[in-house]
Write a structure and sequence with these properties.
Radius of gyration: 19 Å
Number of domains: 1
Helix content: over 70%
Order of helices and strands: HHHHHH
Number of strands: 0
Largest sheet: none
Distance between the termini: 30 Å
Number of helices: 6
Oligomer: single chain
Structural class: mainly alpha
Length: about 220
């Protein structure tokens, strides 16, 4: 990973997050939900960052599993950690919005249930990597690909099953007053996700270098 990419990405993310509150404050209130609707700008954006991280996780896991590329494995670990963080943000902001919109903190409809399952899969990936022992990297790679395979079902869940979530088709049809702060927030979260991936992969590279040095010292 390029060492110079991290400060550039962090600088961009700071710009996005500095301007985002201004755009969100200026956005009009939604007619039924009022102020609480503004959580949506963070809720949806965190899910988009999670989607990106899981896509990176799945692709990197496939590259490691079938081509045995250590760099891909390091990227997969970084992406899994980022996906857990952004997924947790989505699971926290969702109930904050839901209790005002639906009157309950949590409802076991299709999308919320699948989102929780996907988060548990990601946590299982990290636990397997940490405590699985020899060969756990390959097992975890399969789990990472499985997590990516769940993304399409999560995305279309509101179109296929009965759910109280707004359908996915609502987002592209938002008026400019709502759409601008939303997509600005999405861009900020995506850039932040890329910055975290860059930093985390760099850490994994340094850890791998230390491991090689320790092995070299033991062989002497």
């Amino acid at each position: 990973m390029n060492k110079r990419a991290f400060p550039v990405l962090m600088g961009l993310s700071l710009v996005f997050f500095a301007v985002a509150p201004v755009l969100i404050v200026r956005a009009p209130y939604e007619q039924e939900m009022g102020l609480i609707q503004k959580i949506f700008y963070f809720h949806f954006a965190s899910w988009m960052a999670m989607y990106l991280a899981i896509l990176v996780l799945g692709i990197a896991s496939a590259l490691f599993l079938f081509r045995r590329k250590p760099a891909a494995d390091r990227l997969a670990v970084a992406a899994a950690e980022a996906a857990v963080v952004f997924g947790l943000m989505g699971l926290i902001t969702g109930p904050l919005w839901a209790v005002k919109s639906w009157g309950v903190w949590w409802t076991w409809d299709a999308r919320t249930t699948m989102a929780m399952i996907l988060e548990l899969i990601l946590v299982a990936y990290l636990i397997l990597r940490a405590y699985g022992g020899p060969g756990s990297d390959r097992l975890a790679a399969g789990l990472g690909m499985f997590a990516m395979a769940n993304l399409p079902f999560l995305y279309v869940s509101t179109e296929i099953w009965r759910t109280i979530h707004p359908p996915t088709s609502v987002v592209p049809t938002l008026p400019v007053d709502f759409g601008l702060p939303l997509w600005w927030s999405v861009a900020g979260f995506v850039v932040l996700c890329l910055a975290l991936l860059t930093a985390r992969v760099r850490l994994e590279e340094q850890r791998a270098t230390l491991d090689r040095l320790y092995l070299a010292l033991e062989e002497e």
